[in-house]
Amino acid sequence: MSDPAELLAAYLDFYRDAVLRKLEGLSPPQLRTSVLPSGWTPLELLKHLAHVERRWLCWGFAGEPVREPWGDDGPDGRWHVADGESAEEVTAFFLEQCRRSREIVAVARLSDVASGSGRFTPPAVRPTLGRILFHLLQEYARHVGQLDVARELIDGSVGE
User: Per its UniProt record, what Gene3D superfamilies does this chain match (predicted)?
Assistant: First the structure.
């Protein structure tokens, strides 16, 4: 791939898939139990990443109105998945946000500047799509690494 836009999109899809692979095979209790001092669970991380997609691309770049763009963090400020939300619902939310993000990216250029509505209202600096996609790659790389550690602590799996 020599086109930077294709390269960024492909790497994002790689990391999106990596997140889902790291969650495969975990039981419902394992998805909802933290093994780290910070307290987040694997399912909470997946929901957080769905909100990251929404916040940066739907709300931030495209300027679409988004309900709860920061997610529904609990009173302690942590990522939150309600007791009544199933892993399938959170996964469907994540996949839908990724689908919508791909649509937004497909019709834009890396040099396009984020909308002046939504997240980046003046006087905020409006980043380009390229800057946003690079940020998303950084976010995913960090969280996939965190999931590596969590998965190893949960069941010894490494490098999946």
Answer: dinb family like domain
Range of the structural domain that residue 35 is part of:
4-155
Residue with tokens 């692979």: 21
Is 46 domain-assigned?
Answer: yes
Q: What backbone phi and psi angles, to 5 degrees, belong to 40? A: -75, 150
Give the pLDDT confidence of 65-79 residue by residue, as tens digits: 988 888 866 556 678
> How many distinct structural domains can be found in the chain?
1
Read off the pTM: 0.93
- CA 53, CA 16: separation in Å to the nearest integer? 10
- The answer to whether 33 touches 41, Cβ cutoff 8 Å, is yes
User: What does the pLDDT look like over 29-75, one tens digit per residue?
Assistant: 999 999 999 899 999 999 999 999 999 999 999 999 988 888 866 55
Evaluate whether residue 160 is within a structural domain: no
CATH at residue 95: 1.20.120.450
